[in-house]
Amino acid sequence: MSQPRSRFLAAAGIGAAALLALAGCSSSNDAGSGGEPAGDQVSIGVLQFVQHPALDAATEGFKTALVDAGIEVVYDDQNAQGEVPNTNTIATTFAGAGHDLVFTVATPAAQAAAQSILDTPVLFTAVTDAEAAGLVDANEAPGANVTGTSDLNPVAEQLALLAEIAPDAETVGIVYSSGEVNSEVQVELAKEAAAELGLTIKEATVSNSAEVQQATQSLGDVDAIYVPTDNTVVSGIAALIQVAEQNGIPVVSGDAGPVENGAIATIGIDYGKLGYQTGEMAVKILQDGADPAEMSVETSNDVELIINLDAAERMGVELPASVTDRADRVIE
């Protein structure tokens, strides 16, 4: 399952033309400028794959940890707008920007930074499986300049929750991005959990968020839909929810963002807290001189059950008391 880091280094192949192609990216500064830190300030490049609530919360949590530690930071914020070529362009620019640290959000962003940035600490968050993504030699001993936090979800618990909400379900649809290794990992875990529950998984893939509606419709006659923490699908979640509501199909997701936007429930991690945890790792590097090569990939066990009562009603689902009674957060 693990892919040696050298494969990515060899496969980098980032063309010089990419340096000139920042038009598809967005940022709070001039692209790749990095700002000019003064005095005790440090410079951090932020590469976020796409904008959606979970990833935005992770970025804000990271920055809050730096504020709480009393570190003054000039940020170079860049968003790849969900386009992998943009992540490569931004990472290449960051490699020559002289930042003290680079913070990446989501697997494609982390992979791009790992390919291009070899002598600056790189921290990632919202990465499901760092070893499978080729980011580290091993979670316990990353071995190079890249480490961070994993958002691996309790997929088996989430499928069990789906079965509890839709006890008559036999077939579960999953829409995911064919270009996100984090999603592939979750789909495999979902298949294992589904087999234990007597469920059949039906898959549809997308290459961008504009394809989410058509892919959801292509699932056809499914009894429920499970949404993994897939950045491409989550950024187009409204289209999936619309199809589900029109056909009375309950939707359970891998994180809170889709529930806040119309899915019925999740047992998920708090991305703000995960980002904060990554920020604490940055503090150890910037203040204490910690070596990323020796900093284990960290995970969060802080999960919560979130339900959306209005979404359940729109999808024609009556949530059992066994679910509503133990919910940590209720959206009405």
Which terms would index this structure?
332 residues, seven-stranded mixed beta sheet, 14 strands, single chain, alpha/beta, 13 helices, elongated, disordered N terminus
Task: Report on this structure.
With 332 residues, the protein is of the alpha/beta class. Helices cover 39% and strands 21% of the residues. The chain contains 13 helices and 14 strands. The strands form two sheets. A seven-stranded mixed β-sheet has the order 1-3-2-4-5-6-12, with helices on both faces. Strands 8-7-9-10-11-13-14 form a seven-stranded mixed β-sheet. Helix 5 packs across helix 6 (181-197). It starts with a helix and ends with a strand.
In short:
The protein is of the alpha/beta class. The chain has 13 helices and 14 strands.
Helix and strand arrangement:
Blueprint: H1 5-11, E1 26-27, E2 42-48, H2 53-68, E3 73-79, H3 84-95, E4 101-105, H4 107-116, E5 122-127, E6 146-150, H5 155-165, E7 171-177, H6 181-197, E8 200-206, H7 212-218, E9 224-227, H8 231-235, H9 237-247, E10 251-253, H10 256-260, E11 265-269, H11 271-288, E12 298-299, E13 303-308, H12 309-314, H13 321-324, E14 329-331
Parallel strand pairs: 2-3, 2-4, 4-5, 5-6, 6-12, 7-8, 7-9, 9-10, 10-11, 13-14
Antiparallel strand pairs: 1-3, 11-13
Largest β sheet strand count, sense and barrel closure: 7 strands, mixed
Give the helix tally.
13
By secondary-structure content and strand pairing, the structural class works out as alpha/beta
What fraction of the residues are assigned to beta strands by DSSP? Answer: 15-25%
What is the CA-atom radius of gyration, in angstroms? 20 Å
Number of strands: 14
In the sheet with the most strands, the strands line up as 1-3-2-4-5-6-12
End-to-end separation in angstroms reads 41 Å
Gross morphology: elongated
Q: Bin the helical content.
A: 25-40%
What series of H and E elements makes up the topology? HEEHEHEHEEHEHEHEHHEHEHEEHHE
Mean pLDDT: 89
Give the uncertain stretches in residue-range form.
1-25, 29-35
